[in-house]
């Protein structure tokens, strides 16, 4: 923000100098008055654009990583495995470790 203010002050000084030049125009130097007026207009447009900029900065986006997903399956033939497969598949056979899929095929519970 200080840099923008310093630019605005410098440009304002240039505008004041060009206006002072226009005010002290002698009849022999009347050809330079148009160039000074154009320069003053350009400097004023620049100062206006600098001063009209927003005076805030948007905060940087913060990335929040999603929670890790664990796909834990118990080891076969443990109590946890029997509970898992019995709860997941209604056709689970605990003696063989297989269940009947919708296709009719027997599949081992993993």
UniProtKB/TrEMBL annotation:
Keywords: Cell membrane, Lectin, Membrane, Signal, Transmembrane, Transmembrane helix. Pfam families: BA14K. Belongs to the BA14k family. It comes from the Bacteria. The lineage of its organism: Bacteria, Pseudomonadati, Pseudomonadota, Alphaproteobacteria, Hyphomicrobiales. It is found in: Membrane. GO terms for molecular function: carbohydrate binding. Residues 1-30 form the signal peptide. Has immunoglobulin-binding and hemagglutination properties, and can bind to mannose. Essential for virulence. May be involved in LPS biosynthesis or polysaccharide transport. This is Lectin-like protein BA14k.
